[in-house]
Amino acid sequence: MKLTLTFLTVQCLVAHVAAQSLSAVLSSQKNLTSLNELLTGQLSQLVDELERHDLNEDPITLLAPSNQAFDTLPNVQTIGQAVSDNNTAELENILRYHVLPGIHSSQTLNSSFAFYPSLLTAQNFTNVTGGQRVGAVLQSGTPPEIVFLSGQGTRSAVSKQDIPFKGGVIQQIDAFAIPPLPFVDTAATYNLADGAQSITSFLGAVYAQSNASLPRLLNTTSDVTIFAPANVAFELVRGALTSLPSRALNDILSYHVVPSNVGPTYSSNFTNATTLRTLQGQNLTMSFSSNSYFLNSARILTTDILIANGVIHIIDNVVSPNSTAALPNPETYTQAPILPTTGVINFNSSAAPFTTFVPGYVPSSTSETASFSTDSASVSGGDMLATASSSSTRSASSGAASPSESVTSSASRVHSKMGFDWVFGILTAGGLFVGAWMAC
Ligand SMILES: *[C@@H]1O[C@H](CO)[C@@H](O)[C@H](O)[C@H]1NC(C)=O
Ligand SMILES: *[C@@H]1O[C@H](CO)[C@@H](O)[C@H](O)[C@H]1NC(C)=O
Ligand SMILES: *[C@@H]1O[C@H](CO)[C@@H](O)[C@H](O)[C@H]1NC(C)=O
Ligand SMILES: *[C@@H]1O[C@H](CO)[C@@H](O)[C@H](O)[C@H]1NC(C)=O
Ligand SMILES: *[C@@H]1O[C@H](CO)[C@@H](O)[C@H](O)[C@H]1NC(C)=O
Ligand SMILES: *[C@@H]1O[C@H](CO)[C@@H](O)[C@H](O)[C@H]1NC(C)=O
Ligand SMILES: *[C@@H]1O[C@H](CO)[C@@H](O)[C@H](O)[C@H]1NC(C)=O
Ligand SMILES: *[C@@H]1O[C@H](CO)[C@@H](O)[C@H](O)[C@H]1NC(C)=O
Ligand SMILES: *[C@@H]1O[C@H](CO)[C@@H](O)[C@H](O)[C@H]1NC(C)=O
Ligand SMILES: *[C@@H]1O[C@H](CO)[C@@H](O)[C@H](O)[C@H]1NC(C)=O
Ligand SMILES: *[C@@H]1O[C@H](CO)[C@@H](O)[C@H](O)[C@H]1NC(C)=O
Ligand SMILES: *[C@@H]1O[C@H](CO)[C@@H](O)[C@H](O)[C@H]1NC(C)=O
């Protein structure tokens, strides 16, 4: 019923234009000439494939990067490289990430984030059952915007366009959707501009063990969901964690990982009072109260950091399989640690426990950290961006933006419920979002 309505809406739109082919519509759009050139010049097989889709049978939504998006290309990891190498296979994969089966328009989306499979399925690029996902939400405002969420927290906006074509709908986006990177690359660079949300401690802890089974699994298993405690959560229980026998540390870490064979658990999958079976074997209990989701006693701070083989959510506490019954106290912003704590007065996210074990770790150079601002919208150094985004062996410590951050200030940060609290990393900072910034 709902689907029928959707198609009718689009068909109404289409009725005005007569059903034009994708190529015809693309070549009539002034802001899509670069995309059109790439598709017709180099990816004609993909175009042929897309042209075979039919509005009534198997419609698609094409996220079409504008000329402006092409102009900012070289700064973006993966994409910039593929373009400068003129690597047709990679370019095709990148473009496949921009095609979503189904109609995703201002008529079908609402204010809840949803995650849709794309045509990107190449396993060396992504490993999510059914194709790598793109998040989408209809953001109220004047005019209302559709926002697409991709790798590295990148958001691409479109002002309610819904350009119809014979096989579905085109949404012109102002920045490329970035195919999510592997776990290590994402965790090592996530939130360089905001140490309070860095997760290099979790990443380092995974690599601190002599047992390579967990690192391998996080690299190559499909559909993983990782609940990564923020660095400050590790700092709070530093003493307890660093003195654990390796078996117990491994248990704790794998208690933060949820495997699946039906796709990752995105924020749109969260439900109150459900259990998630972890890699460690015991369950995590998810609950919803006071406008937040919790896992056992940990509050979920940031949702939906897409990675090549799944998704990461950031939590404010280390959880333990020895405290599966720990309950949240929704009245307080931060949750009481479940392990013995050592005091934290001034917190330097770069020096959080285990960060020296991050793959490719090199000690920080202080000049670099000083240049970042937590207001990522104001960061504009093109050179800095290129450096930060092209290095996958980046140092954990140079990644953190603020040289030191107090626990109270990070803890009192206000987060909204469903993933609007992305304080963007450097990748998005470099001008990917032109005029489409949402401060929620
Ligand atoms: C085309 O792009 C320009 C800026 O690059 C923008 O001002 C204009 O609104 C865009 N037109 C459409 C139809 O999106
Ligand atoms: C990229 O490669 C294609 C062939 O694969 C070629 O037609 C095109 O001219 C090349 N583009 C550039 C900018 O070198
Ligand atoms: C992924 O595999 C395709 C062939 O299936 C190849 O063309 C492409 O270069 C590979 N990409 C990477 C990142 O290895
Ligand atoms: C948005 O739509 C989905 C299904 O399409 C529905 O489950 C959800 O409740 C809707 N959310 C809102 C806020 O209307
Ligand atoms: C290594 O880790 C895996 C899974 O995390 C576990 O099953 C295995 O027993 C561990 N091996 C050792 C020697 O600790
Ligand atoms: C996992 O992948 C990263 C690069 O993404 C690499 O540095 C690391 O060595 C890999 N780890 C294992 C155990 O394969
Ligand atoms: C993708 O996931 C499957 C299932 O977990 C695994 O067997 C495969 O090795 C993974 N592929 C890559 C390239 O990581
Ligand atoms: C859980 O408790 C048992 C028994 O006290 C202990 O041996 C084990 O190390 C603990 N595991 C963790 C992850 O703390
Ligand atoms: C998440 O929700 C989607 C859409 O309802 C569903 O297909 C998928 O199986 C769910 N994932 C998990 C892990 O339950
Ligand atoms: C969540 O589930 C618990 C346990 O079933 C219930 O007591 C509570 O009212 C539920 N909360 C909401 C917001 O539905
Ligand atoms: C985990 O939860 C499932 C239900 O989701 C239940 O069947 C299972 O017994 C639980 N496992 C443990 C170890 O409590
Ligand atoms: C934070 O820690 C890093 C890495 O240990 C160090 O290089 C940096 O100087 C520290 N910053 C402050 C302000 O102490």
3D structure, described in words:
This protein is an alpha+beta fold and 440 residues long. It folds into two domains: 225 residues, FAS1 domain; 209 residues, FAS1 domain, CATH 2.30.180. It has 18 helices and 17 strands. A hairpin with a 5-residue loop joins β11 and β12. The chain is elongated and about 65 Å long. The N terminus and C terminus are likely disordered. The site of one 2-acetamido-2-deoxy-beta-D-glucopyranose has 5 residues, from loops.
Summary, kept brief:
With 440 residues, this protein is an alpha+beta fold. It contains 18 helices and 17 strands. The protein folds into two domains: 225 residues, FAS1 domain (Roll), CATH 2.30.180.10; 209 residues, FAS1 domain, CATH 2.30.180.10.
Search tags:
disordered C terminus; 7-stranded mixed sheet; alpha+beta; FAS1 domain; elongated; FAS1 domain-containing protein; disordered N terminus; 2 domains; binds 2-acetamido-2-deoxy-beta-D-glucopyranose; 440 residues; 4-stranded mixed sheet
By CATH, the superfamily of the largest domain comes out as: FAS1 domain
Rg (CA only)? 22 Å
The N- to C-terminal Cα distance equals 34 Å
Strand order of the largest sheet: 10-9-15-14-13-12-11
Counting structural domains, the number is 2
Under CATH, the topology of the largest domain is which? Answer: FAS1 domain
Signal peptide: 1-19
Domain FAS1: 19-177, 186-319
Transmembrane segments: 419-439
GO cellular component, one term: fungal-type vacuole membrane
